[in-house]
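The methods section describes the discrete structure representation at length, but only in general terms. An entry of this sort, consisting of the sequence and the corresponding backbone structure tokens, reads as follows:
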Amino acid sequence: MKRYHFKTDEQSDVKGLRLADLAAVKCEAGKVAGSIMCAAADEVWQRREWTVTVTDDSGVKLLELSIVGTERRAAA
């Protein structure tokens, strides 16, 4: 199994994860994004746009998951 690294603008996964295939990598990228959104929800929505980038052990970018948050206030 190959090792993959998941990075955001503020965090980098130095150790990486060994995953079986690209489907598993995509699933993990979604988990990383979801975890960040739950842990820092207010900050995520204030930043408007951020990404989770996946690289292999040699640093080649394989995937980039872009997240755009738009908060709309309910009309009074």
Strands lie at 2-7, 17-19, 49-56, 61-68. The chain has a mean pLDDT of 87. The longest strand covers residues 49-56. Residues 22-39 form the longest helix (18 residues).
